[in-house]
Amino acid sequence: MAKQMVKERQDITWLNCIKGASGKVIVDDKGIKDSWKEYMEKLMNEENERDHKISAGIKEGPADCIRIAEVTAVLKMMKKHKAPGLSGLVAKKIQATRDIGTQCMLHLCQGYFK
Asked: How far apart are alpha carbons 96 and 74 in whole angstroms?
């Protein structure tokens, strides 16, 4: 009785049968694998319709510079009381430095994108 209860509580981790593309139930392992292969090939090779109304111009030249107002806005949005990263800095410390911290962050960000 206890073995039956344990067996009933176990999750089903495999599939014994599936319905193929034709609607027939497939129960043998090779047929199941072939059916999945066929399904996945169809799924991955299907061309989806695209909306050609969207267009984006190609931008040449250097990337836009990061502005101090953007860095300030991001620093204000950062949540306080979060765990520090590898540097050991937390948002609270960066926000407490005000203009000096903002200038340092701006310099770091601009150096990253150059």
From this structure: 14
Q: Which residues of 26-65 are buried (b: 16+ CB within 10 A; e: fewer)?
A: beeeeebeebeeeeeeeeeeeeeeeeeeeeeeeeeeeeee
| The two three-digit tokens of residue 108, written as one number | 């770091």
**Pairwise CA distance, residues 114 & 103, whole Å:** 17
- The domain locations on the chain are 15-45, 68-112
92 token code pair: 């609270």
pLDDT in tens, 46-86: 777 776 677 777 767 666 788 889 988 988 888 888 888 88
